[in-house]
Specification:
Length: about 475
């Protein structure tokens, strides 16, 4: 694969520049374990340069630009990504081990949709006139929060990166984006295309590097006004602590251990099909993956049998093969984590129905895995595995289903399957989840809020919630006294 850019350079202030240290790191193809490219490794000095560039751009041309013109630039960027769709999809597929068909079906269209949605929002960020006093003209405006530090995970680097870039730029902020060190390539290419679209130098800076150096420096930097992070709860806690220095605003979208609840009266064909997709899509590397399937006692055995059959039928293979349904785990370390959890599940006494092993000895492939006879308090039912491993848990009635669905540290998402409209509405009301799917599972849309609470983070992305993330309200009083 020939890259259209030089990954040995960071993108700072509109220019490709070497890391101050001169250090490079390799990004690997998780399907083959081969080096795709050597990438510039940013450290604290590079973060300083990038933040300074972002501040100059915020105080300069970008901050003075008409909102409608910012929207036009974002529209041009969406058009450019669409024009280079094949190249970007291949880049994302190879770097993250994602099946090319899935990238073209979901990740890429979602990134383009996000850009166009927020491009349309740019000149519609309104304040209010509030008649607080008869002798004063009082109103509010929403102003950009300033310089944004955006830290993007490795499971959906292109899509989640755009969830942060598009609303921040639409609001008039500038961005220093640190992609995950194991999937940095699509961010660098998007940064290059942003310049071509007319984004001024310094408005979008791309600084690949490691969390303990580049990420930590970005979070702690006193001239960063806002941090938006998607990743693990453990790192989320570190970010909260690091952001305390100048009390910068933080949005966190963290982990999940989402319950997909199937009642006895559900359409089992649809429910089990969606349950399989809900855990095995993107090799289970999804924050909202339905990693706990809660099945009512009367249908429990049938659900396990059907889910195992679907798992066995999944075609695991090279991401470039359009017939591949599930690719590799993103890295050797993550593959080992998944296999370790399989071993934990067996030791806890769960029944390994299918899967649970590495496939081959080249690439980080793990077979789709189904555990039955899982007790609610087992670690495989409580802890986020982030791989193609599903725990099927038995429940008795509605109250038991709710108690088990809500019985983890997470609250990102939940699903419920039943023909009883009252039951599903009661479940939706009682479920502690930022998103509840009824007789479906896994869909997201940039127009709907996204996020959770507890170990799933706080704040919301998407929709107008993202506009609030990247703006500050200001009250203005003007005296009308004679």
């Amino acid at each position: 694969m020939t890259l259209q850019f030089d990954p040995r350079k960071l993108l700072i202030d509109g220019r490709p520049v070497e890391a101050q240290s001169g250090r490079l790191f390799d990004t690997l193809d998780p399907a083959t374990e081969e080096v795709i490219a050597s990438v510039a490794e940013a450290d604290e000095r590079d973060i300083d340069r990038a933040v300074a560039a972002a501040r100059r751009a915020f105080d300069g041309a970008w901050g003075r630009m008409r909102a409608a013109d910012r929207g036009l630039i974002l529209m041009r960027l969406a058009d450019l990504i669409e024009r280079h769709a094949e190249e970007i999809a291949l880049l994302e597929s190879r770097d993250a081990g994602k099946p090319i068909a899935a990238v073209q079906r979901q990740d890429l269209p979602a990134a383009i949709d996000t850009l166009r949605y927020y491009a349309g929002f740019a000149d519609k960020i309104n304040g209010q006139v509030i008649p607080a006093r008869p002798n004063a003209f009082t109103y509010t405006v929403r102003e950009p929060v300033g310089v944004v530090g955006a830290i993007v995970p490795w499971n959906f680097p292109l899509m989640i990166g755009m969830w942060k870039i598009a609303p921040a730029l639409a609001c008039g902020c500038t961005v220093v984006l640190k992609p995950a060190e194991i999937t940095p390539l699509s961010a660098l290419r998007i940064g290059e295309l942003a310049l071509e679209a007319g984004v001024p130098p310094g408005v979008l800076n791309i600084v690949p590097g490691f969390g303990k150096t580049a990420g930590r420096a970005l979070v702690a930097h006193p001239d960063v006004d806002k941090v938006t992070f998607t990743g693990s709860p453990a790192v989320g806690r570190e970010i909260l602590a690091g952001a305390a220095g100048n009390l910068k605003r933080v949005t966190l979208e963290l982990g999940g251990k989402s319950a997909n609840v199937i009642f006895a009266d559900a359409d089992l064909d649809a429910a089990v099909k969606a349950a399989a997709s809900g855990i095995f899509f993107n090799t289970g590397q999804v924050c909202s993956a339905g990693s706990r399937v809660l099945a009512q006692a009367e249908i429990y055995d049938e659900v396990v049998e059907r889910l195992a059959a679907r798992a066995k039928a999944i075609r695991v293979g090279p991401p470039a093969d359009r017939g591949t349904a599930m690719g590799p785990i993103v890295s050797q370390a993550q593959m080992q984590r998944v296999l370790d959890y399989v071993e934990i599940g067996v030791k806890e006494g769960a029944a390994l129905v299918t899967g649970g092993s590495r496939i081959g000895n080249r690439g980080y492939f793990v077979s789709p895995t189904v555990f039955a006879d899982v007790a609610h308090d087992m670690r495989i039912s409580q802890e986020e595995i982030f791989g193609p491993v599903v725990s099927v848990v038995r429940f008795t009635d509605e109250d038991d289903a709710i108690a088990k669905a809500n019985g983890t540290r997470y609250s990102l998402a939940a699903g419920v399957w039943s023909r009883d409209i009252g039951r599903v509405q009661r479940f939706a009301r009682r479920a502690r989840a930022g998103t509840v799917w009824i007789n479906t599972y896994g869909y997201t849309d940039i127009r709907l809020p996204w996020g959770g609470a507890r170990d799933s983070g706080y704040g919301r992305e998407h929709g107008d919630a993202a506009i609030e993330n990247f703006t500050e309200p200001k009250a203005v009083w003007m005296s009308l006294a004679g």
